[in-house]
């Protein structure tokens, strides 16, 4: 009973969140100002700006098809097609050269694209019955309904999707047989918070498709999926945290049957209604398929979850197998997972595994005397928080600045980078030290940057360099002497700080419209590795997630991200502050030799009996601040 209650609460919470997501979707970014209708014929293939579609003539075009005809192929930058509420009776094809476009409706309840073709009509066959055919790549669809209203007359496709890096969020797909053709052997598709309904094989095809938090509604006794996954494709259809429902009177529905041999379909943490048959899966009367398909479940719950009754050739995922169904692994491939802005095209979840409270709980076991440092404000420091220094489409990166109130002249500055294994952590972790150093007369800034779940290397390096440029451009606002700027970092932030400070070539800079340089005059590295592949280094999985692969897979990337191995480094003074663990300063000693040979100052301070994140605790905090201040006093002149 307790387990059932937990599952009920989990389900109830999900649906509340789903409802809030739908309600919270806004249409506030529609282009403002006077909008004049455009001539789709005269502008065919030429439009590069955002487009408004409105049936009442208040937009650029009255139909979605006219907007599609106008969009320039292979756009130089992304654009959005805003679609005002209405029932758009159109049969649409988005061709392959149309990329980097978001199609945004107001809500799936009132923004509907519909048509009614079916396979037997003029003998057109299944694959010409679509309402919307998507062949382009890097496309996003939000708050829309795509439907085929032909009814129960055989195959009638609503969505035909074969492009790569396709995202459908808060959309509805309405039809009967073959509602959704999610296909393309090299296609990766994400369906998030969507509603999909149909009768037979209403999700079918060869794509690698992830369905997250979706409702899958069966309208007749039949089959939900009919995957045709190619043999060489690792993933097929994956359903996570979904809900399987049925119309009244529907009592016998299979999770799937193989349209082709080697079909792959997996359900994870999915609520299954009583309409799902105990055996779960069907072989489509082809015994060979039983030897080649991969049908699996993990954490299924509800009346239709019958793990002990499933057919013997299906699987229940082990804990280790379940690990391979993370979003990044499902969508991994030989092509890049980065979009126009360098972010993962399928989105990300913020990793909060490294935080002050959890770090303290772990470290206090070996160091019972320690207490976390918490400094919220200072009467002698002015705070400017949440300043946007970089925009990546709808994503904003922010920094905070702390300035001495009594400064009579521009002051030296410090850009501070948090740690967390390149995948977790938050700029808030650096605030106590930023305030303490601001009290000593420095203009300090803590910086948010993209972590590995969002964007892999070198995105974080580009972000931090942009933050430095932004601070220099806005230096007068904070009393910053832009000619005297240092960068500091802790753990992964220390590695980033060292790499940022020691590089000045185009490969590390990223794109920018700011004219200031990203150069700094000094580096402070607190327990950040200087060489990823090194006898003292213990970097493995976490580094691989950031660098895009293991050392064996990406040796050139591992070396390019290692300050020690830079071919033409910027040699500037460096302060190393280290814990008792050699793995966190791998490459330090060799780098010091190189600095010395160039006549560049370096300094080492080590706390022999300390945890790795020593800078977070009272035992070492004040001493660390004093060491940093002394170093900066000697170098920022």
Automatic annotation (TrEMBL):
GO molecular function, one term: pectinesterase activity
Domain BD-FAE-like: start-end pairs: 399-578
Top-level lineage group: Bacteria
Enzyme Commission identifier(s): 3.1.1.11
InterPro entries: AB_hydrolase_fold (IPR029058), BD-FAE-like_dom (IPR049492), Pectin_lyas_fold (IPR012334), Pectin_lyase_fold/virulence (IPR011050), Pectinesterase_Asp_AS (IPR033131), Pectinesterase_cat (IPR000070)
Gene Ontology CC, one term: cell outer membrane
Record-annotated active site: 201
GO biological process: cell wall modification; pectin catabolic process
Pectinesterase catalytic domain location: 50-326
Family: Belongs to the pectinesterase family.
This protein's name: Pectinesterase
């Amino acid at each position: 009973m307790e387990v059932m209650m937990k599952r009920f609460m989990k389900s109830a919470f999900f649906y509340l969140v789903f409802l809030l997501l739908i309600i919270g979707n806004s249409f506030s970014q529609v282009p403002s100002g006077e909008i004049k209708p455009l001539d789709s014929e005269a502008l065919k293939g030429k439009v590069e700006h955002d487009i408004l579609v409105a049936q009442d003539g208040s937009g650029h075009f009255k139909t979605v098809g006219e907007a599609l005809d106008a969009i320039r192929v292979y756009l130089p930058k992304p654009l959005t097609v805003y679609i005002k509420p209405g029932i758009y009776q159109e049969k649409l094809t988005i061709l392959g050269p149309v990329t980097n476009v978001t199609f945004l409706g107001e809500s799936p309840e009132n923004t509907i694209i519909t048509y009614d073709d079916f396979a037997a009509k003029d003998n057109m066959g299944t694959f010409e019955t679509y309402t919307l055919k998507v062949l382009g790549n890097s496309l996003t669809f939000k708050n829309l309904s795509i439907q085929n209203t032909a009814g129960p007359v055989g195959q009638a496709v609503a969505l035909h999707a074969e492009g790569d890096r396709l995202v459908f969020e808060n959309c509805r797909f309405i039809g009967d047989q073959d509602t959704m053709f999610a296909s393309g052997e090299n296609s990766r598709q994400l369906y998030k918070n969507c509603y999909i309904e149909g009768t037979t094989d209403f999700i079918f095809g060869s794509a690698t498709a992830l369905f997250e938090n979706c409702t899958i509604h069966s309208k007749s006794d039949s089959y939900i999926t009919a995957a045709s996954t190619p043999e060489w494709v690792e993933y097929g259809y994956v359903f996570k945290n979904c809900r399987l429902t049925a119309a009244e009177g529907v009592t016998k529905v299979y999770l799937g049957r193989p349209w082709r041999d080697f079909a792959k379909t997996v359900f994870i943490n999915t609520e299954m209604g009583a309409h799902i048959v105990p055996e779960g899966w069907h072989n489509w009367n082809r015994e060979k398929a039983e030897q080649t398909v991969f049908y699996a479940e993990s954490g299924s719950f509800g009346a239709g979850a019958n793990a002990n009754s499933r057919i013997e050739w299906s699987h229940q995922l082990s804990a280790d197998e379940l690990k391979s169904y993370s979003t990044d692994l499902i969508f991994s491939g030989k092509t890049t997972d980065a979009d126009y802005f360098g972010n993962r095209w399928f989105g990300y979840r913020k990793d909060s595994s490294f935080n002050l409270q959890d770090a303290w709980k772990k470290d206090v076991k070996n160091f019972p005397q320690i207490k976390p440092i918490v400094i919220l404000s200072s009467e002698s420091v002015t705070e400017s928080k949440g300043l946007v220094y970089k925009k990546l489409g709808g994503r904003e990166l922010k920094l905070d600045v702390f300035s001495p109130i009594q400064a009579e002249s521009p002051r030296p500055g410090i850009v501070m980078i948090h740690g967390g294994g390149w995948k977790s952590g938050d700029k808030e972790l650096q605030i106590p030290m930023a305030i303490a150093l601001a009290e000593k007369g420095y203009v300090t800034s803590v910086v948010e940057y993209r972590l590995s779940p969002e964007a892999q290397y070198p995105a974080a390096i580009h972000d931090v360099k942009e933050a430095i440029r932004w601070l220099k451009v806005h230096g007068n606002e904070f009393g910053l002497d832009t000619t005297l700027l240092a960068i500091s970092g802790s753990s992964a932030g220390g590695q980033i700080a060292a790499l940022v400070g020691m590089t000045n070539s185009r490969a590390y800079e990223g794109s920018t419209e700011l004219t200031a340089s990203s150069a700094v005059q000094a580096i402070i590295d607190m327990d950040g590795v200087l060489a990823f592949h090194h006898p003292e280094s213990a970097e493995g999985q976490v580094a691989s997630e950031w660098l895009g692969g293991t050392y064996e897979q990406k040796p050139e990337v591992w070396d390019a991200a290692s300050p020690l191995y830079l071919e033409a480094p910027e040699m500037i003074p460096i302060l190393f502050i280290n814990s008792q663990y050699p793995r966190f300063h791998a490459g330090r000693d060799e780098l010091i030799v190189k600095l010395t040979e160039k006549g560049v100052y370096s300094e080492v301070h080590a706390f022999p009996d300390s945890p790795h994140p020593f800078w977070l605790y009272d035992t070492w905090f004040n001493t660390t601040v004093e060491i940093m201040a002394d170093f900066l006093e000697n170098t920022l002149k």
